[in-house]
């Protein structure tokens, strides 16, 4: 009887439960007219090319500017203009369609911001030239800020600004105001450098203007006394100038306080960008491209400023980019006996160099091998007692060098590795080699 009662109650409860209603929803298909012919996705910023076909701006600008193709993606016809024109009609149709199909997950695409026009850029640059002639530093500064803001808006605006010769106008303006030491001009010059960093790289004409004696002196002054952002922008510009012109290296080195200002950016770092740019600038000053006598003088000045010790300290723990550049500079500083003596005397030099072998990059390995090779030669010429070799062997250098011969490297590096192994092999039996953690699973054949 109890069982029958339970069955009747279960039946009543079952009848109270509403059964789900099967609803079939037809999927919404994006109209072909609203799809970009390149990406086949719904267009967010439709633009028309000179051939009359509409594309999504992001896709067609990648086609034109990144891929370097000046033909219509659909027809293959050469474009008479590479500047896409907004298709407002199609955009409004897409927006209306998105609103109608919002329940299917289509959000209304926002109306794109109007990009800067060629006439606007030309007008701003003309006003900069006009105010420059009048000596109106504050007026020029406001216009430079406007140019900077436009360049930051989008890649499209930046391309427009660059294509109208903004770098030339800014570099000429920098040179024109660099002869005045007033505080107002100092602020303007920092603003111009900030704008120039946004439109890198420069052609040779721009580099020539920024590399004039007057401009270099103004840049070095900012490097020494400017704000943190001013010093950062100054060294980024200098790195660009010094990388391609031998005469600029000499002229920069002759400016009072230039070497000290660069070394200070390494010893008192601001950020990664500044450190990388400073290391590259110093690298160009101490590498073989510099004349021997001048290079020797520059190396001595950097050594007096304690750059060797700072570089080795940085190498203990740094990013790959900084590591490569720091090793390059250290290798340059080890170009003469004075530099080798500094590196040889530092207790961290050998362990740090061995640690970087085969762990960072090919270029870092080559620099490390070159420095170890130079130090080994220096020790022999100075009548050393094989202390460097013993220390290198203890931290696993022999195994790494043998492996380096097997995995491949440049011919010069292989020759240096061979020289090191020949000398170190004679004393290897007297040293208890500590296996490097990098090779804990490596089976040695010796």
Short key terms for the protein model shown above:
Herpes Virus-1; mainly alpha; 64% helix; 446 residues; single chain
Short structural description:
This protein is mainly α and 446 residues long. The protein is built from 23 helices and 3 strands. The protein is flat and about 85 Å long.
Largest sheet: spatial strand order: 2-1-3
Helical content stands at 55-70%
- Whole-angstrom Rg: 32 Å
The poorly predicted ranges are 16-26, 439-446
Output the number of helix runs: 23
Order of helices and strands: HEEHEHHHHHHHHHHHHHHHHHHHHH
Tell me about the largest β-sheet: 3 strands, antiparallel
Give me the secondary-structure category. Answer: mainly alpha
Q: How large is the share of residues in beta strands?
A: under 5%
Average pLDDT reading: 85
Number of strands: 3
In one word, what is the shape? flat
How far from one another are the termini? 91 Å
Structure report:
This protein has helices at 2-16, 57-66, 88-100, 118-134, 137-153, 155-163, 166-177, 183-197, 204-210, 213-225, 228-242, 246-254, 258-267, 272-286, 292-304, 307-315, 320-333, 337-345, 349-356, 362-381, 387-394, 397-407, 411-425; strands at 46-48, 54-56, 85-86. It is mainly α and 446 residues long. Among the domains are: 32-104, Herpes Virus-1; 344-446. It has a three-stranded antiparallel β-sheet. The protein is flat. Residues 16-26 and 439-446 have low confidence and may be disordered.
